[in-house]
Automatic annotation (TrEMBL):
Functional summary from the UniProt entry: Catalyzes the phosphorylation of the position 2 hydroxy group of 4-diphosphocytidyl-2C-methyl-D-erythritol.
NCBIfam families in alphabetical order: PRK14608.1 (NF011202)
Keyword Kinase: yes
Alphabetically ordered keywords of this record: ATP-binding, Isoprene biosynthesis, Kinase, Nucleotide-binding, Transferase
Enzyme category, top tier: transferase
The protein, known as: 4-diphosphocytidyl-2-C-methyl-D-erythritol kinase
Organism: Salipiger marinus
Similarity-based family: Belongs to the GHMP kinase family. IspE subfamily.
A molecular-function term among this protein's GO annotations: 4-(cytidine 5'-diphospho)-2-C-methyl-D-erythritol kinase activity
Catalyzed reactions per annotation: 4-CDP-2-C-methyl-D-erythritol + ATP = 4-CDP-2-C-methyl-D-erythritol 2-phosphate + ADP + H(+)
Domain GHMP kinase N-terminal residues, every copy: 70-121
Amino acid sequence: MTCIEVFAPAKINLALHVTGQRADGYHLLDSLVAFAPVGDVLQLRPAEALSLTLAGPESAGLSPGPDNLALRGAALVAAGQGAAIHLAKHLPVASGIGGGSADAAAAVRGMLALRGTEAPAGLGQDLLALGADLPMCRMNAPLRARGIGEVLEPLSLPPLPALLVNPRLPVATPAIFRALACRSNPPLPEALPVFAGPEPLIDWLAWQRNDLQPAACAVEPAIGAVLDALRQLPGCRLARMSGSGATCFGLFDTEAEALQAAQLLRAARSGWWIAPAVLGDQTQRATPRRQ
Ligand SMILES: C[C@](O)(CO)[C@H](O)COP(=O)(O)OP(=O)(O)OC[C@H]1O[C@@H](n2ccc(N)nc2=O)[C@H](O)[C@@H]1O
Ligand SMILES: Nc1ncnc2c1ncn2[C@@H]1O[C@H](COP(=O)(O)OP(=O)(O)OP(=O)(O)O)[C@@H](O)[C@H]1O
């Protein structure tokens, strides 16, 4: 029987500036985003109706009901066709790396591949209504995101060796936006430099910010502990939080340094989710494959 497999990569906000707030309460952002070769995996098989089963190390506590973003994404493009979707959850839930949004975007890609059809007009608006991270999770390649997350500009960034770390404590995005002390901060520089490699990119990122980080550290102090632990690892050039947390990333000049740092941190913190990853373009891996 036909089976479509789709990879749903984690999105990492390398910088996240909160520049204003719309009348409806949503915040205006200016964010530099790259994607990790770490993510969830969806399998879709033709069926009478849409259904979802869950597995994987991070699936505990996640409901396979109609609210699951994988089902909500698939429903947007199902056009009456059913699918049995199996989601292997590897990304911690509510962790600032867009797991649910990545699953929804992957379910859309998988459902369209199963139906053998193109994305319908108006899908962009429907996706944005599901979540502000949905448009970027459709791209899976380095980008700058503005507006509330829907104004996207593809970027060329060098592959960036990183260590992703989550203290296994969920953080609710609305609570972090609510806790912001300032909602009107400077944007990223209008023109972005061309980066010859990870070193100049990390130097430049050190001048940028995640404006949600102070509020998130106040709401969940374990985030501060993760950042401190990352900063103490040999070779870590920059430690920052992604999205609304709690996942943080350390950046390294080389992949070997990131792998060594992962080993050291795993030995010290057995309860944390720790994933070395070279951040960049995951479009190839995220393309649906027929099994
Ligand atoms: C923080 C980021 O992860 C950065 O990429 C995203 O902006 C969050 O994206 P998301 O989780 O897909 O967000 P949504 O599910 O659309 O919104 C959750 C809640 O976060 C707040 N929210 C989200 C995005 C945004 N630009 N402004 C906001 O104020 C709103 O209170 C909203 O009710
Ligand atoms: N397939 C899914 N994976 C993860 N969370 C899901 C899923 N479906 C629904 N949710 C719900 O969505 C909420 C946000 O989870 P998600 O893992 O996407 O957060 P996040 O990583 O902080 O996302 P973002 O970085 O986009 O803010 C959680 O409350 C979770 O219960």
